[in-house]
Amino acid sequence: MKSFETLVLVRQPVERLWATVRDRLPDLVPSIDEVETVLVLERDEVAPGRTRIVNEWRSTQHIPAVLAKALHATEIGWIDRSEWDSVTRVCRWSIEPSVLGEHIECRGTTTYASAMGGRGSRITFAGSFDLAPGALGKLAGPLERPVAAFVESMVTTLIPKNARSVFEAAAALVDTEVGS
Fold first, then answer.
1. Fewest beta carbons less than 10 Å away: which of 49, 61, 126, 152?
2. How far lies 15's CA from each of 24, 51, 57, in Å?
3. Phi first, then psi: what are they for 12, rounded to 5°?
4. What is the rounded CA–CA span in Å between residue 173 and residue 154?
5. pLDDT in tens, 80-128
């Protein structure tokens, strides 16, 4: 298992940023690198101040032909399942990738806090990624351990980078709407 964490500061009040990321994620897609679409599959108010959301993401990245054949997949996508608690401003999430999903566990939390004297937001995005032993056995053969370590390192770099892009896109959208 490999852990990851990133801290992002943006110049938008936490209430606006929180609501934008939670409620308008598909609107952010044009500003997020390497994301083609985000489709909201489910949205439920499970309790006062608690919202459960399921999103399907599609990436503009494609799996290299050699791997695509072995994995029986051509594109990269994932399902994110999240629960947003408006009281604590904590979002608990899990990601189910479309490739090797049965061998991967990825989950974490995103914490939103007021910053810059109420004029900004501090977002802490933290999680873990676990690739089950043997998941790459047929693909990597005797090199499975170093290949698995490489995959974990790559993914735990890309996920926080993608999250940062989402938060920055949300801040830019809020800024545009407030400025108009």
1. 49
2. 13, 15, 24
3. -140, 140
4. 29
5. 999 999 999 999 999 998 877 788 899 999 999 999 999 999 999 999 9
38: buried, middle or exposed (CB in 10 Å: 19+, 13-18, 0-12)? middle
Label residue 165 exposed, middle or buried (CB < 10 Å: 0-12, 13-18, 19+).
Answer: middle
**Of 8, 11, 43, residue with least CA distance to 117:** 11
Residues contacting residue 139 through CB under 8 Å, at least 6 positions apart: 67, 70, 71, 147
Q: Which tokens belong to 1?
A: 């298992």
The secondary element (H helix, E strand) that includes residue 40 is strand 35-47
DSSP 8-state code for residue 98 = S
Residue-wise pLDDT for 43-56, tens only, equals 999 999 999 999 99
Q: 113-125, pLDDT tens digit by residue?
A: 999 999 999 999 9
62 has a pLDDT exceeding 60: no
